[in-house]
C-alpha cells in the first residue's frame, strides 16, 4: 500500500515534488492538476495531467494533495478550497499573513475531517524549527538567521522592472565576517543589511546607460538602498550559462548562556547549502505529506504547522525502527 | 501557575537542571532528591533536599521529576520506578538498550497515567532529530556524525585505570579535513577513527616511565589502538587549571541528492559548540519537562522519545504566539 499523492500546479516546485516522490518507494503520484491547457505541460516521464476543474473526481483516489502554487495569489485561494476536498500540504510563506491563513485552512480542514500542513519548507519550516527549539533550550540567548548564498526572487524581479533592463538576477550573500562574529559567541547587534551582501547580474537592452541603471538599482528603497550592493553587467548568454540554477541556503545560529552565573556559552547552528531551492523545498513537502497521511489516519484534523507535527511522522520507518536505529 | 519540578540526583547534570530551571520563569524547583546523606549535598542557593525514600510523599507536589542519574546502573532501575509515581524526563543514552528501556518505562507510565520522556539530550536527542529528519527529507543520501571537541568520560576513565597514572583526561577532536570533505559533498566512506583524533593529558605518579604509559595508552584495544592518539604529560596543577571544564559538541551532516537524474546536491548540517556538556544537556531536559507536563495534561501517557513529541510543546509560548513570531 502506497500513499497516493496529487500535485496541484506544475512549476519548479511541482516538478521537484514529482522527482521527490520517485525517491520515496512508499509514495505514488496519482496525477498533476493544472489550470493551464493540459497539453501545455511538459512533464518528465509518464504522469497523468488533469484539469483542476476535475479535481473533485479524485477525492477518493488521493491521500494527500500537495499545493505547489505561490503565496501571493494562489495559496490564499487554493489552501482553503482544497482543504475541503483533500488532506493538503503547502509552502505558504508570507510570514505576516500566516496566522490568518492558518485559521482559514484550520476551519475548513476540521469541518471536513482533513489534515492540512501549512507553511512547510525551510523558511518557514526547518529554520523555524531550529529557531524555536534552540530558544526553548537556551532562553537566555540571541538568535541570528542568515540567508544565502542564493537567488532572491523578489529582488531579481525588482531589477527586471527597471526600464532598460532586459534580464537580471540577484544573489543574497551572507557575510563571512558577520557569521564568524556570531559563531564566536560575540552576540553582536546586526541588522539584515550588516549580515548580507546583494550581488546583481544585469543584462541591458541595447544602448542603455550602465551608470544610470547601476545608480537606480543601488538607490532603490527597501530593496537595495540600505545594503552593500554590487552590480555586474553581463550578456544574455552569460546569464543563461552561469545563472540558471536555483541555489540557496542559509544559517540559523543561536548563542546562549547557562549556569548560575551565566558563565557558560553555547552555540547551536543549523545550516543548509542547496543546489536547488525548489527541489529541496519539494523534498520537505513530500516528507510532510507522509506525516499528514499518518496524522489524518490517527484522527488529528485541522491545520498543522511544523510546531504541531511530531517528527517521527516524517519517516517511512516505524516507531520501533526509529528507536532502534536512529535514536 | 508554574510547572513544579523535582530533581533526582545532584551531580553535574542535576546542578545543570537547577540552574536551567532558574532561567525559565514558568518553572519552579520543588526539591532535590538524593540517596546520599542530605547534609553531604552542596547546593547553590536555597533549595530543599529530600531523601529519595520520601519521594512518594511528593506525588501531588511535583509535576515532572527529572532523573539525573547515569545510564549504566541508575536509570535502568529509577526510570521504571519513578514512572510509577511521577511524569519523568531522563537522558538514558545506552543506545543498544533503548528499545528495551522504552518498553519497560512505557508499560509502567501508561498504567499509572504518566508521561515519560526518555533518552533526552543532544545525542541521543537533538542529533537523533537531525539524523532522522534529514534522512526523511533526503532519502538518497549519506549521514555523518562527528563528536567533539569534547571530553570523553569513558576514555578518560580508561587512562586513569592505567597503573602509574595519577589523573588524566581525553578529548575527542573531530578532524577538519574529514569535515570539509563531507561538507563539500564528496560522500567519503569514513570510519569513526578517520573522523576523530584522540588527545590525552596525563598526570603521572612520581618516578613512572612516560614512554611505557604512552605505549600502553596508544595500544589499548577498542579505546585507542585504531585511532591517531596524542599523549601529553602535564602536572596536576595544569590539569586543574586548564582541563576542569566540560566542553563538548559535534556535527551531524547529511548530504543528499534530488532531481530526476539526481543532479542536485544538498548539504544539511547541525552543529553544537558547548562550554558545558552537562549544563546544555540539562537545559534540554528542562525544555522536555515542559513538553511532558503539557502532553500529560492532554492525556498522552506512556514513554516518549524526541520522535514522538511535537516541538511546540517545548516552548513556553502558545501555539498562536509561535505561529505569529517564530514561524
TrEMBL record, chains A, B:
EC number(s) stated in the UniProt entry for this protein: 1.4.1.16
Catalysed transformations (reactions): meso-2,6-diaminopimelate + NADP(+) + H2O = (S)-2-amino-6-oxoheptanedioate + NH4(+) + NADPH + H(+)
Keywords: Amino-acid biosynthesis, Diaminopimelate biosynthesis, Lysine biosynthesis, NADP, Oxidoreductase
Gene3D superfamilies to which the protein is assigned, alphabetical: Dihydrodipicolinate Reductase, domain 2, NAD(P)-binding Rossmann-like Domain
Subunit structure: Homodimer.
Family: Belongs to the diaminopimelate dehydrogenase family.
Name of the featured protein: Meso-diaminopimelate D-dehydrogenase
Amino acid at each position: 500500500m502506497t500513499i497516493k499523492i496529487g500535485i496541484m500546479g506544475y512549476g519548479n516546485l511541482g516538478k521537484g515534488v514529482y522527482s521527490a516522490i520517485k525517491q520515496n518507494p512508499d509514495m505514488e503520484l496519482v496525477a498533476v492538476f493544472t489550470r493551464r491547457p493540459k497539453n501545455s505541460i511538459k512533464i518528465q516521464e509518464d504522469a497523468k495531467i488533469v484539469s483542476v476543474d476535475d479535481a473533485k473526481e479524485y477525492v477518493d483516489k488521493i491521500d494527500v494533495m500537495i499545493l505547489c502554487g505561490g503565496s501571493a495569489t494562489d495559496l490564499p485561494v487554493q489552501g482553503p478550497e482544497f482543504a475541503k476536498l483533500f488532506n493538503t500540504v503547502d509552502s505558504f510563506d508570507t510570514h505576516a499573513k500566516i496566522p490568518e491563513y492558518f485559521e482559514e485552512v484550520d476551519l475548513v480542514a476540521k469541518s471536513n475531517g482533513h489534515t492540512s500542513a501549512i507553511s512547510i519548507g525551510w523558511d518557514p519550516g526547518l529554520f523555524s524549527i531550529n529557531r524555536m527549539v534552540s530558544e526553548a533550550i537556551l532562553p537566555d540567548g540571541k538568535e541570528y538567521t542568515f540567508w544565502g548564498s542564493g537567488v532572491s526572487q523578489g529582488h531579481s524581479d525588482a531589477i527586471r522592472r527597471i526600464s532598460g533592463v532586459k534580464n537580471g538576477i540577484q544573489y543574497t550573500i551572507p557575510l563571512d565576517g558577520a557569521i564568524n562574529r556570531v559563531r564566536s559567541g560575540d552576540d553582536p547587534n546586526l541588522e539584515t543589511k550588516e549580515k548580507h551582501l546583494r550581488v546583481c547580474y544585469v543584462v541591458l537592452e541595447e544602448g542603455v546607460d550602465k551608470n544610470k541603471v547601476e545608480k537606480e538599482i543601488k538607490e532603490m528603497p527597501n530593496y537595495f538602498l540600505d545594503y552593500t550592493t554590487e552590480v555586474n553587467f553581463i550578456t544574455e548568454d552569460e546569464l543563461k550559462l552561469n545563472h540558471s540554477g536555483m541555489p540557496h541556503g542559509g544559517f540559523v545560529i543561536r548563542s546562549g548562556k547557562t549556569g548560575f552565573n551565566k558563565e557558560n556559552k553555547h552555540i547551536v547552528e543549523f545550516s543548509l547549502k542547496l543546489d536547488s531551492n525548489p527541489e529541496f523545498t519539494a523534498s520537505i513537502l513530500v516528507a510532510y505529506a507522509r506525516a499528514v497521511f499518518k496524522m489524518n489516519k490517527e484522527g488529528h484534523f485541522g491545520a498543522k504547522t511544523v510546531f504541531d507535527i511530531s517528527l517521527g511522522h516524517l519517516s517511512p520507518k516505524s516507531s520501533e525502527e526509529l528507536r532502534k536505529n536512529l535514536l
